[in-house]
User: Fold SAM-dependent methyltransferase Erg6/SMT-type domain-containing protein from Cylicostephanus goldi.
Amino acid sequence: MEIDFAEQHDRLFAEAKQSGDHSAVTSHYYSVMSAVIDEYFGGNFHFAPPRKTSMTLEEALADLHRKIGERLGLKEGKSCADIGCGIGNSEFHRLGIQSKCRLIEGDCYNMPLEDNSKDAAYAVYSLKYFRELDSVMKEVSRILKPGGKFLVYDLIKTDKYDKKDPSHVEIIEGLEYACGMPSLHTCEELLSAASRHGLLLDEKEDLSLTNGSPFHFCFSHSPLFMWLVESAMISE
Assistant:
């Protein structure tokens, strides 16, 4: 029996909206997309506005990853947690650094990590999948050493979002549906949850303003990505 991906996604997303639990629809989304991400996007499926419009997606992401490392002060001997690493990264094996990394499957509301054990942590495109942020922030605060830094790079609703504007609502709800995730958090919601658990804002940056390109530039200018978005070939 063949079940259409979109049909099943519709059903699971509707159930998630009723129950508040998006785990099933998110898992269903990645059951198909993880293979696409690994095959066509090098294991990385987050947006990064390029500093130059001539930069490829790979170059823009490498630039972003260097920036993350610099902001967190990562170097040899530092211990850092990637909160929500997605499908992992086969590049670790190609580069021969897998011995320095541990892939841990666990509950981000109850991380299997020791107190005060990490110099830094980051969450890239993962907090958007959590309906409730306080439990995650509490755990991040617990595992960080005193003075440790936590960096978040994610999709959020900015101050420009107007819930009374149908075009704004359509874009946001379209993103939530496509990725099988709960309602996007606002910047204020994220910062408030962090501060309640001792994680105070050190710096905030909108890379689309810094780099002069929209956050989706590398994807929306990729013929391959746009073909995948518009393709009806995905089914189970």
Observations:
- Residues 23-40 form the longest helix (18 residues).
- The longest strand covers residues 144-153.
